[in-house]
Known about the structure:
This protein is of the alpha/beta class and 468 residues long. It has a single domain (7-467), classed as Alpha-Beta Barrel (TIM Barrel), CATH 3.20.20. Helices cover 37% and strands 13% of the residues. The protein has helices spanning 14-17, 58-72, 83-86, 97-112, 128-134, 141-156, 177-181, 192-216, 238-260, 266-273, 282-287, 339-353, 383-402, 450-460; strands at residues 7-11, 76-80, 116-120, 163-165, 221-228, 231-233, 294-299, 303-305, 357-361, 371-372, 378-379, 406-412, 432-434, 446-448. An 8-stranded parallel β-barrel has the order 1-2-3-4-5-7-9-12, surrounded by 5 helices. A two-stranded parallel sheet has the order 6-8. Strand 10 and strand 11 (378-379) form a beta hairpin. Helix 2 runs parallel beside helix 4 (97-112) and helix 6 runs parallel beside helix 8. The longest helix has 25 residues, at 192-216. The protein is globular and about 65 Å long. The two termini are 14 Å apart. The model has no long low-confidence stretch (mean pLDDT 96). Pfam families: Glyco_hydro_1 (PF00232). One of its GO terms (molecular function) is beta-glucosidase activity. One of its GO terms (biological process) is carbohydrate catabolic process. This is 6-phospho-beta-glucosidase. Keywords: Glycosidase, Hydrolase.
Amino acid sequence: xxxxDFLWGGAVAANQCxxxxxxxxxxxxxxxxxxxxIKGPRTEKPTEDNMKLxxxxxxxxxxxxxxxxxxxxxxxxxxxxxxxRIFPKGDESKPNEKGLRFYDDLFDECHKYGIEPLVTLSHxxxxxxxxxxxxxxxxxxMIGFYEKYVxxxxxxxxxxxxxxxxxxxxxxxxxSPFMSGGINTPKEKLSQSDLYQxxxxxxxxxxxxxxxxxxxxxxxxVGCMILSMPxxxxxxxxxxxxxxxxxxxxxxxxxxxxxxxxxxxxxxRYFKKNNIHIRVTEEEKEILKNTVxxxxxxxxxxxxxxxxxxxxxxxxxxxxxxxPNPILKASEWGWQIDPQGLxxxxxxxxxxxxxxxxxxxxxxxxxxxxTDDGNGGxxxxxxxxxxxxxxxxxxxxxxxEDGVEVMGYTSWGCIDLVSASTAELAKRYGFIYVxxxxxxxxxxxxxxxxxxxWYRDVIASNxxxxxx
Length: 468
């Protein structure tokens, strides 16, 4: 059912696992002043209670962790490059050699075990200096800074990395402009025109990165990455159906531009109605024609939409919330669990774009409990995670049977890491338990969870074990 060259693996982000926030010439990123994640206030400088400053110490322990990934049989490992390791402020003329060398060593370690790196160029890690001195992506100069950065890493790793993603969950900037776009202007003071101008700059930068990548190495495969969340009408009422369509446009337009090379017409009506004006040059229109090779996305949850204001009560759901589906159960964090929504989303994206698809994030965040395994060791009996992933992967198989071209699947947080949304370690996703707690205590030792062996068997059988 799964193609023989299917890319099985796992995913992390540098800012959530590496730590070493000020080592070897690294500059500060926006994450270093976000000790409470998305919803909490930012600080003037890094504070000791920011779990991401140490993360899971992947920076010093990556060899141990890559070996564990290899034991599970990973074909691909998705990670990100911390932009401020390469250009500490973001606007320097020369890169930081120690930062470049770290990723040389990391990618070499992956290849040692036959693991292909999948690298996100910007994963909520804008250099803090660019946010504070340029107001992030509102400023068109950001395009040039990003182009210099991607040219540097494309050139350096042209023989070590084949798969690239330009921006992580690029549509999340609508809801978290500081974390996603490095926009320093407070959200409540940010005009819609400035926000969409920043989005335009990111979209131009993404297209420019595709062009640069294919010039440096024509074999590069460059994808976009969107936060996907199916939006179902809450009822059969046509007004609810139209409302779901309108809300979905806020997600799809980001992919539309990166896949089709131009803005969709439905956006014109929204801009006109809300008096939104952005500057788009003829040169930028030409750059946008450099479209991506594949479409990647995160999938955790689906939501509903309604035109009835009395029923329009938002629930939880990654960065994007929505009206809860009364039929579905939810996780400990209120995210509704909808395996069939993944099959649906794969079909919708395939029908819309006819581009290869990659599931770059999917997984279950839960409060895992480390216990005695009965053999003198420690483990986590995370049958709930196994059930969640099995149900979702079976739906991936169904989508493939439907005719959808799916390149691969990287489970989010394949090793426990610091949550982006809450900045805590209590919300664990991994197959590997990391002994670190939200109060900073712990040995940082790694322990295989029950799901570790389960996922190893799934990969070894190329998905056949899902049906046993």
